[in-house]
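User: Fold this one for me? It's Cytochrome P450 family 71 protein.
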Amino acid sequence: MTYGKKGIIFTEYGDYWRNMRKLCSVQLLHSSKVEMFAPLRKEEVGLLVKSLRNSATLHEVVNVSKVVAELIENITCKMILGRSKDDFDLKGLVHEGDVIDWKI
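Assistant: Here's what I get for Cytochrome P450 family 71 protein.
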């Protein structure tokens, strides 16, 4: 998740931070990259709508905040890792990385 103890999130403002921000803006968040994942986002939102429709038909209460957070997590996992979050424990991996990083 980070290289050494340098990452864009916790790095102090300076040359390194500006270079990382530029890299993210140009390479990761470029409009062509974002548009490339439009079908994936459309599919995931369609699944969410179908789920909400089924819940409404059954008169079930839905925690919309939780459902939207899961939608974002699903889309992010598929965009970054190319597979569903159900294939592995992403939160566990991130936590493990944080624990290891802090021990160094």
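One thing worth pointing out: The chain has two domains: 1-35, 37-103.
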